[in-house]
Amino acid sequence: MHVGAGDVIELAVDDAGNPERYRIDRVEQGAMQLLEAVRIESEVYVLSDIGEDTPGVSPFVPPVPVLPVFLDLPLMTGDEVPHAPHIAVTAKPWPGTVALYNSDSDSNYRLDQIIGHRAVVGVSETPLFAASSSLLDKGPDLQIRLTAGQLEGVDEAALLSGRNLAAIGDGSAGNWELFQFQRAELLEPNTYLLRNRLRGQLGSDGIMPAQWPSGSTFVLIDPALTQIALKTAARNLARHYRIGPARRGYDDPSYEHRIEAFSGIGLRPYAPCHLRVTADGAGGSMWSWIRRTRIDGDEWDLPEVPLGEESEVYVVRVMQGSMILREAVTTTPNWIYTAAEKADDGVSVPYEVHVAQISARFGAGLFARATVSD
Fold first, then answer.
1. Which site among 78, 198, 335, 356 is 20 to 30 Å from 151 CA-CA?
2. Which of 271, 274, 273, 278 is nearest to 335 (CA)?
3. From first to last of its 374 residues, what are the pLDDT tens digits of the chain?
């Protein structure tokens, strides 16, 4: 066979007798001719119809200041660091990523978090009046205007499973009521009407005011919220924060500077419930209540909810106006205000009774209140 290196030959080597092409790479002459070849196909050199990849071009986003909202919240899933606050950040336009730096002074900042998602933040345009935390609030619609993002309604099962949780407050870090909403009607771009609300969730009924006025801050509780790294020893200490576009340095004019201190609301005991005052038959009165827990309180199969604290301790107060007439500590969910103590305090009706559970790490939690008028 008169062939040499580089020649292309066809051989019928498959079972169907179809020819296959080979390129000879090496020829060895001897008693017989030895060939080394590789299979080739001309189709591999034919241009395909696949388009070329072109480099993407990101639109220019000016380094505008962002709007940070700090939230010192109760435990929501139980997986959070109890004493650490959250931050929600929004901006229009969104810079892509936002950096959060912190320090104990306005210098020597360290990177705390890189935030990649814009939170759903807005303001209320109608007041939200106080309502029971145990019933569906079907009062006047709550109108919310968002900076960006969207809201959507859920069915009843999803609502009762914890969906559509939001916070409303005055914008300060530790003053938030958590509530849920079932209906969200789009009124106009970025403006919604929220209906069928569950109020005072996760123990926040204890801070619910007579009304949240128009202009209150609204934050949707979703994965865009980021928990800040905070040491336990740093609770209640003022710290400096700088928040701005991640591609800029923290000393850039686009960065927002905040000074915040956090008490660690995730450690705060809920206010007791069902506070009752009854006469003891001897001129005194008996107070009784039922404790609540901030940890695993929805476990209905348990005979009693977990304590959630190192020990069961309560502080009770007798209040005449803004004056504390008597304060006592008890380790049971009841207390007797004797006739002798009443006479010694000089109490007169009407007066108030206040009860709070005490945490070894937080101190007194939110107070339950009742008025005694006879």
1. 78
2. 278
3. 677 787 888 877 666 667 788 888 888 877 777 878 888 876 666 666 665 666 666 666 677 899 999 999 999 998 999 999 999 999 999 999 999 999 999 999 999 999 999 999 999 999 999 999 989 999 999 999 999 999 999 999 999 999 999 999 999 999 999 999 999 999 999 999 999 999 999 999 999 999 999 999 999 999 999 999 999 999 999 999 999 999 999 999 999 999 999 999 999 999 999 999 999 989 999 999 999 999 988 877 888 889 999 999 999 999 999 999 999 999 999 999 999 999 999 999 999 999 999 999 999 999 999 999 97
**Residue whose C-alpha is closest to residue 98's, from 213, 228, 212, 210:** 228
Q: Sort residue 158 into left (φ over 0), alpha (ψ -120 to 50) or beta.
A: alpha
Residues in a beta bridge with 118: none
CB 96 within 8 A of CB 89: no
Distance between CA atoms of 100 and 107, rounded to whole angstroms?
14
Which tokens belong to 358?
Answer: 């005490």
Asked whether this chain's domains 67-119+224-266 and 273-372 adopt the same fold, the reply is: yes
Q: Which residue has the tokens 């800029």?
A: 248
CB contact set of 205 (below 8 Å; sequence gap of 6+): 133, 177, 199, 271
Does the domain made of 67-119+224-266 have the CATH classification 2.60.40?
yes
**For residue 274, what are the CA distances in angstroms to 70, 142, 271, 287, 334?**
32, 29, 10, 10, 11
Per domain, the residue ranges of the chain are 8-45, 67-119+224-266, 121-220, 273-372
Show the tokens assigned to 137.
């609030």
| Tokens standing for residue 136 | 């569906």
**142 has which bridge partners?**
194
Which class would CATH give 273-372? mainly beta
